[in-house]
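Researcher: Please predict.
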Amino acid sequence: MSLLALVLLAAPAAGGVDLEAQVHSIKLKNGMEWLVVERHDAPVFSGCLAVRAGGADEHAGETGIAHLFEHMAFKGTPVLGTKDWAAERALLPRIAAAGDALARLKRAGQGGTAEAKAAQAELAGLSQQQKALTDENALATLYLLNGAVGLNASTDPDTTNYSVSLPKNRLPLFLTVEAQRLAAPVLRDFYTERDVVEEERKMRIDSEPTGAMYEELTQTAFVSSPYRWPTVGYTGDLETMTLQAATEFHRTHYVPGNVVGALVGDVDAKALAPLLEQTFGQIPPGPVPPAPAFSEPPERALRRSTVYFDSSPRFWLAFHKPAPPSHDDDVFDVLQIVLGEGRTSRLYQRLVLRDHLAQAVSVFGAPGARLPGLFVIAANPLQGVKEEQLEQAIWEELERLRKEPVSADELGKARNRITADLARTFASDSGLASALTHAQAVEGDWRYLARRPAVISALTAADVQDVARRYFVRPGAVVVRVERPAKEGP
């Protein structure tokens, strides 16, 4: 199907939206919802699960637990990944006791004591015994031997996502495996994997200027919102994270009513309902956890922060914005393209080509979409350019948006880009499956996707100017910059 055809597919028609007619919603008795789209072009399908359990669902002192649990979901079940389940099951309580004892000692500042060293040695020995009883690649191997592609998982502030594509005749395998690892994962190698996540944090944040800058941005911009926490977690929390806490996180968040599934491809929607009930429907229901509760204070000040890092200078200016599906959030998508998408965007033309103030510029939304987030303008100043000059030029461009309506050409380009990006997402089975679960889990209704092209096409230059006037103001703005640390004396 052509890109144009996909755009038209998503566009509104007199009788509604075609995508809405194509999506079959199946609600299981335990509260889990599945979204199914039949496409019989090729004998394959893509499956996706989205759990409303991201970094924003964690508690203080347990940051990184959602991401760590994503790693754990690949470790298998009592059936998949073990060579001797009876022997392994006997080891699990001993591993948990040793690991949790070590975590408590570290939390109390006694990580270097003889008691802590003894617990560390016991944990290492028990972990080696468990490793001899397991096959950590069993799940991936099983899928690959059955023709899987795109086996993946990801965690963000809003959700944890699991996806894979398979031949159509492997649908029963997919349903069986995914239901088992959703309901009864075995947290194998928990403490080893916790160390892996610690190293991941060191690579992505502690030793990487953009990662350090991003963490500082969210911590400066948000006071009480859980979006201020890094999804990968803080080092201190990871070092003291316990198996008991991870088990409790799974019990609370991995309940059927908190999970959305999607199947797109060569499947039969009518025949799926009994298969889903026989697999995922057997998972006991549980109370759906409440949404994150917080209250951000009024935005009265422009906040500034400097990250000292041995790196070239970087400059970010951010503004608070609402979460989708609000009207203003749709306008911010247009502003993102007008200001920072491509060589014809306003900031590229001004900062890079005309004034030679920056070597690169970009605009993006962060950190997530379930809660109010940020609209971020990022620029890397050229050598010798003072950041005050760069910042002033950006404010001038924002002021121009506040005073003058965008041109018809700019607005048309932005509308076409958003609609085309959506069409590209719809073009692949995996893209559509992921988009459907995300829209249902985060925006609260998958129909948001189907109606989005009509919403974007209805936006006007007056809408853009109104949002620019209300949001591009100094009270509540956030500036984060990277600066090389001063060299110490001898």
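Model: Residues 1-17 have pLDDT under 50 and may be disordered.
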